[in-house]
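Q: Entry one of two.
A:
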Amino acid sequence: MKIYHLSHTDLDGYGCQYVVANYFKDCEFYNSNYGKEIEEKFEEIMIKVEANPDEFALILITDVNPIESVCEEFTSRVSRLNHAKLLLLDHHQTGKACMEKYPWYFLDSSRCATKITYDFFSKIFGENKELSLMVDIINSIDIWLSDSKYFELGKILMQIIASSKEINRTMFAKQNHAYMFFLLNKAREYFHLENPNIALEDATHSIKKEFFKNDKNDTLCNLISDYLVRILSENKQDYTIYYKDKKGLLVYDIGNVSVIGNDFLVKNPEYDFFLEINPGKKISLRANNKIDVSLFAKTAFNGGGHANASGGIFTSYKDSSIYSKIYEQTKTYLEKFNEK
């Protein structure tokens, strides 16, 4: 059996997946906020499930509550398959109507989704004392049990996950997921210390550096840039776009674009520009003296700036959580200028 697990993007969402990973090895993890992204991620999963009819698949959804029309679509898609089942474990009261209608939809507002997930699988596969402690810490903060002895530790754990946006999950889903699991694994080392919340908060910067560190120590900013540039360089053929006769790299909401963009262009001199698209249609362009991106920004994105650093607005852009969709619409748009 293979598990395709879609969960939320906060501590509780990743906590659900952390629990599942402790009980199953053959898992693919997906994360989503609410709204359109749930449907996009579900479609990604269904494409893989439908392409593997000889493999039984459990499509597990946790810590998100799709609206009724989306639940109806999920039911319709999965019911056509003999090799797939759907299970949703959630705690948001807004899903009550769906729970009453769909047998695959389980809801309990008295526990966080991580605890629901742990209780469900531990009854089948056995208790795990250390994992149970992690679950109780997440539960204390997610449903706000301020009298719990784990509450202050839960606050730090929640803050760590919420602030760890260094790896964009749209572009680098697997790496982002590995990062979240690394942070949760390292946090467990502090649970039994005196004043664990303070000890964990004090250690957070070093823990993050440990994940990104390669062969030498550096500032966290530089370590993150080196890590991301290494991934981009290894897979640059997947991100390459063209503007007229100039070759560029397209990224989505990568953050710290000046540092990362410049580092990439220095290490990959065959590229002329670095283009970042952000939610809200904003774009950032970086160059290394091989193209005047202020003119590029002015012509293509009604923007401007400096020769090596400019920005603008991609007015026709429709945001997506799927990089391939972002890439295709950007590529198609820029091809209009290539023809001129």
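Q: Entry two of two.
A:
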Amino acid sequence: MARTSGKSSGTDAPRISLTEPADLTDWRPGPGDVLSGDRIDGRRIAALDVAGERLPDLELEACVIEEWHADGADLRGLRIHDCVVESLDAPVLRASSSTWRDVRIGGGRVGSAELYDAGLSGVEFVGMKLGFVNLRGATVTDMVFRDCVIDELDIADARLLRVSFEGTRIRAAEGSNTSIAHVDLRAADLDRVERLEGFRGATIGSDQLYTLAPLLAAQAGYRVD
């Protein structure tokens, strides 16, 4: 059941300050125009197709990307700052050890998001279908998932600060040694959740507690008769 989250003592909302880039130069990259280690700044890109490319350490700054196709691309060490991506399509997104700061992903589908050891700050995912999201060892600060579906979220060894899930369905979340502060699940849809091991310390609503009671009891090792 999802509900609208409100201000609650002890749970701070994410601090999102992204301003959509302006005064951009239109750019239509062709094959071979984007190379490993390139810095792309101040561009409006109708379609960025890097599927299958090897592009570690690519940097994107102050860009608007209407369609980004990144299936299987090697984006390890990606740095993306002050950008808006209107649609991201990546059955496999390989972006470990990447840095995301003040970024909005406004739609699309990602099957497997390899974001382990990444740093994400001021990031919004909106209206997305996300299969397996691997945030192992990541540092996540001020992030919002809004109107998304997440099949499985792995947050082992991650640090989460001011993260919310607004109108987002989470089917499973697991992990160990996770550091959580100001993580808000009150507006999430948790009716069909299978596992919540990774979210110890998060805030839930009283109505959610009633719904989740059997799952929480099972995770704690209690038998309800």
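A: Comment on entry two: Helices lie at 206-220. The first helix runs from residue 206 to 220.
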